């Protein structure tokens, strides 16, 4: 089983903290809400992913270790 990273778009407020903290993994969609970059759903070993999860003001990011 592999790690799985996701952003709950129904909770996200578009603060952009995820994209600022781990820009190689997160981005913002056309509406300004956080999203995981395509192909980066496993976090790709980026050490800043955990910090981005903590930085989200509404806890919209989930990271499940496999």
TrEMBL record:
InterPro entries: 3Fe4S_ferredoxin, 4Fe4S_Fe-S-bd, Fe-S_cluster_ET. It comes from the Bacteria. Its cofactor is [3Fe-4S] cluster. PROSITE patterns: 4FE4S_FER_2 (PS51379). Keywords: 3Fe-4S, Electron transport, Iron, Iron-sulfur, Metal-binding, Transport. One of its GO terms (molecular function) is iron ion binding. Residues 3-31 form the 4Fe-4S ferredoxin-type domain. Pfam families: Fer4_13. PANTHER family: FERREDOXIN (PTHR36923). Ferredoxins are iron-sulfur proteins that transfer electrons in a wide variety of metabolic reactions. This is Ferredoxin. It comes from Streptomyces capoamus.
